[in-house]
Every structure is written in C-alpha cells, then in structure tokens.
UniProtKB/TrEMBL annotation:
It is an enzyme of class 5 (isomerase). This is Maleate isomerase. InterPro entries: Ectoine_EutA, Iso_Racemase_Enz_sf, MaiA/AMDase. GO terms for molecular function: maleate isomerase activity. It holds the Pfam family Amdase. Its EC number is 5.2.1.1. It comes from the Bacteria. It comes from Rhizobium leguminosarum. Keywords: Isomerase.
Length: 259
C-alpha cells in the first residue's frame, strides 16, 4: 500500500517541443509486409526523421483483383498515423497495387484524411528515380506472375520508357517474395538486365532488393532502382535530407526530381 506516500505535483508544467522529432514520415504497409519497415529503419529513420507505420488488411494471392481491394482502406490507414497531426510525407508501400489502383487515386484517398501531405508511391518514386539517373531504356525484374506483371509493363511504357527485357519470378504470395535470399535477388537481377538498358528496376516492396542494389550496380555497371530504395530516397529528399549515400546505390547520390 502506498497511501502513506505523499505525491507532490511539480511547481510548473514541462516545456514542450513542437515535435518529438523534426520530420515525420507515415508508412501505409500491408499486413503481410516483412520488409518495408526494416528498410526504412536502415535507410531513413534517424534522430531527426521519425517513421510511423499503419498496416492495412491484405489477403494473398497477389492478383490485380486482390490488390485493388486495398483502395478503400487507404484513407483510414493514413488517418491512423498520428491522428490530427501533420506529416512530411505519406508513403503507400505496394508497387503492384500502385499500378492497379493508380498513383492519383492513392493520393486522393490519402488526402481525404491527411490533406495536402506529399504522397509517395513506389511506382511514382521509381519513375522519378529513373529520370534522375537519366534512364530511358530499362530492364524490369518482378517477383510476380505474368498476370500481375503485365499492368506494370504497361505503366512504364505509357510513361515513355522503353523496356528492353521484363523478367518475372512467377510468385503469388508476398510472404514468399520477402523470403527470396539477397544472393538470389542479385543473381536474378544480373540475368534480367539487358545490355542495352540504361538501368534496372526491381519491383516489389516485399523483396529485399534495396540491400543489394549497390552490389548489383558494382557487378553490372548499371544503376539499379528498387521499390524501397526509390521510396526511401523520395521520403528523405522530401524531408530535406539531400546527403549523398552511395553505399545504398547511385540513386541515393541524386537530388529529388533531377532529370
């Protein structure tokens, strides 16, 4: 019993900072995602930038139909990230769903609960990244089936890219995609890169490609953009972090929107 202990209120209220951290990024990720938080902790989070996560429901297999079902959850998912407080960016972490739902529709859904916040998708960030690297001809590697890969090929072609080679690994469960060994990712990436291409894009936020991007660049001599590398780069630049970090790959040496 502590009834005999006198509890004394302090003589003044504590001084409050405007924010616990200077910048804050919201992540909307799939319930099944193993990789995005790990990559953002490694590449983005710091004593200046906080990363705050909301998970939304997702059910495998990875098909255009299942991906589209996430759209109604985006507004609520964004609203649950530090409710009633402003964010410096919100990133929706699903590349294939960004193609199916559409970058603008994702932005509108997030703005319904977080008005005016910069919205980052893996697809839009990848396009900005490829442009920053001066890439017009690309090779693409995805973990998806042909059915899910086809809309992605259309997405890049419609934006003016030439696809020299498009390789898919025919997986349909994003949890298996997360289990592809980094050595295997690097091996498949080297095989997927057409010599004519200016760069390689490796799709899927579940795939642990960001951690081997610089290694693939060293082996192939070509720049590599991955879903999580592109979104991490975009979020850092939106937070005013313009440091060159070549250990993560060539993209991390570029200003946002260059090209």
């Amino acid at each position: 019993m502590t009834a005999g202990i006198k509890i004394i209120p302090a003589g003044r209220l504590p001084r409050l900072d405007d924010r616990p951290l200077e910048k804050r990024i919201g992540l909307i990720i799939l319930a099944t995602d193993h990789t995005t938080e790990v990559d953002f902790r490694r590449m983005v989070a710091s004593d200046r930038i906080g990363v705050y996560v909301s998970r939304i429901h997702y059910a495998n297999p990875v098909t255009p139909e299942n991906l589209l079902k996430m759209q109604p959850s985006l507004t609520e998912g964004a609203g649950l990230i530090l409710p009633d407080e402003t964010l410096d960016a919100v990133m929706y972490s699903c590349t294939s769903a960004s193609v199916v739902i559409g970058d603008r529709n994702i932005e509108a859904a997030i703005h319904a609960s977080k008005p005016g916040v910069p919205v980052v998708t893996p697809t839009a960030a990848a396009v900005k990244g490829l442009q920053a690297l001066g890439a017009k001809r690309i090779s693409v590697l995805t973990p998806y089936t042909i059915e899910t890969s086809r809309p992605m090929a259309d997405y890049f072609v419609d934006l003016g890219f030439t696809i020299d080679r498009f390789t898919c690994l025919a997986l349909s469960d994003d949890r298996e995609m997360a289990r592809i060994a980094p050595d295997e990712i690097a091996s498949f990436a080297c095989e997927a890169l057409d010599p004519q291409s200016d760069a390689l894009f490796i799709s899927c936020t579940a795939v642990r490609a960001a951690e081997v991007a610089a290694r693939i660049e060293a082996e192939t001599g070509k720049p590599v953009v991955t879903s999580n590398l592109a979104t991490a780069w975009a979020c850092l630049r939106l937070c005013g972090d313009d440091r060159a970090r070549p250990e993560f790959g060539q993209l991390m040496t570029k200003p946002y929107g260059e090209g």
